[in-house]
Amino acid sequence: MRKNGIFALSFLTFVVIAFCSIANARIIYKDINSISLRTNFNFDYESITNDGVDDVTYSNNGDDGSNVYTYDNKSYAIESAEWFRESTDDFSIGSEPKVIVYLTTNDYNYDASSSDNEYYYRFLSSYNSSNCAVSNATFVSATRISNESLKIIFKIKPIKGTYNPPTTAYWADSSGNAVWEPDNVLNSGYFEVSLYRNNNLVHRIEKYNGTKYNFWQYMTKEGDYMFKVRTVPGTDKQLVSGKPSEYAESNAITLQEGEVNKNGQATSDTSQGTRAGWANQNGKWFFYQPNGTMLKSNWTKYNGKWYYLNANGEMVTGLQTINNNQYYFLENGSMITGWLKNGANYNYYDTTPGSHEGALCKNSWVMFQGKYFYFDAQGAMAVGWKEVADSKGNMAYYYFYPEGTTTGLFGYMATNTTINGFVIGADGKWTGR
């Protein structure tokens, strides 16, 4: 009986210890603070139409030629990848197809001395472009499905290709009405149309958005008239990815002396002729007004974008000072508005329509997404503690959250909080307490 009593006590002790061990065990998560994916998407429209669109390939062992890959990441791995199809135009010239990638967490290599605990990697509740990097692509969104599963959507660079020429080009009548029919598949919606008399250029229209044009005002002399038309890139994306098509040529119509337009715009038989719209000459872009005059030292708004032509009539790019304001123009010449990363700094170009639109914000406050930002005399976004003049010109200390101290948006003014012991009021000012 004594032996049995000892056995019963020992068993009870074992159960209690086991229960305490289980009770003391914890689940410990290690957050995955950043995501990094690399991509290899390099195809043009011709390769897609000839071979079809292949499935998205992926790898977790580095660059082995897959479309999406990681480098032996310890915390997460690619579980699957696929195209995110939204419409039949997803794979046309200038389009930026989207890709969905599903990630899953890897096993956590925990310390054996703490083996009673359970260790797991987990994804954050949200990611953005600052902590989710996708090389050679543009981040769109990241959605956490669970602690162990994350869905990422990004879009690749625009598909390149050559447009098809219009299928037909003809004169609707002898009064200068030119008509053409665009290709149904590879059609940008923009055309370059040139009028010829006796094989000499009379007038050219570049990046014309339409399928008919009346040349009657330029048909002022007798001769044989015909026109050529080709499909050209027109939008910013198309200019980057699309190449002009071959020309489609119309039939010729002959006008005698008594049939020409006596009140039209006279032109000479030169190789230049007259132009309207954009023209590329020796690698530089110029803009001609409808009357054929080159625009100089002035602005023009084309397809919703602002451009500036300097004193020589050349389209400007990069950082430019115009009328004591600084503006930034992309490589295609269009003026930017909003945010621009400049090295380690962030600049903001005015988005308010009007005379100051596009100007670099300096010594000024900007409200963005309901938060206040300040930009110094060089246009750099303020971070950390800054002494700034308020609306009445009084100097006060403000705190602007540096990158990495907030989730998502950063650089904005702190309010109703305490930073390192310094109390900040509702107006963002350090109260002095």
Task: Give an overview in words.
This protein is mainly beta and 433 residues long. The protein contains three helices and 34 strands. It has helices at residues 2-24, 45-51, 236-241; strands at residues 27-32, 35-39, 58-59, 68-69, 76-84, 98-105, 118-123, 132-134, 137-146, 149-156, 161-162, 168-171, 177-181, 191-197, 200-208, 212-214, 223-231, 242-243, 248-249, 253-255, 274-281, 284-288, 298-302, 305-309, 318-322, 325-329, 338-342, 345-349, 364-368, 371-375, 384-389, 395-400, 417-419, 422-424. Strands 14, 15, 17, 19, 20, 21 and 22 form a seven-stranded mixed β-sheet that branches. A four-stranded mixed β-sheet has the order 3-4-2-8, with no helix packed on it. Strands 5-6-10-9 form a four-stranded antiparallel β-sheet, with no helix packed on it. A hairpin with a 2-residue loop joins β27 and β28 (345-349). Mean pLDDT is 84; it is low at 11-22 and 266-273.
What is the element layout, followed by pairings?
Elements: H1 2-24, E1 27-32, E2 35-39, H2 45-51, E3 58-59, E4 68-69, E5 76-84, E6 98-105, E7 118-123, E8 132-134, E9 137-146, E10 149-156, E11 161-162, E12 168-171, E13 177-181, E14 191-197, E15 200-208, E16 212-214, E17 223-231, H3 236-241, E18 242-243, E19 248-249, E20 253-255, E21 274-281, E22 284-288, E23 298-302, E24 305-309, E25 318-322, E26 325-329, E27 338-342, E28 345-349, E29 364-368, E30 371-375, E31 384-389, E32 395-400, E33 417-419, E34 422-424
Parallel strand pairs: 1-7, 2-8, 3-4, 11-18, 15-21
Antiparallel strand pairs: 2-4, 5-6, 6-10, 9-10, 12-13, 13-16, 14-15, 14-17, 17-19, 17-20, 21-22, 23-24, 25-26, 27-28, 29-30, 31-32, 33-34
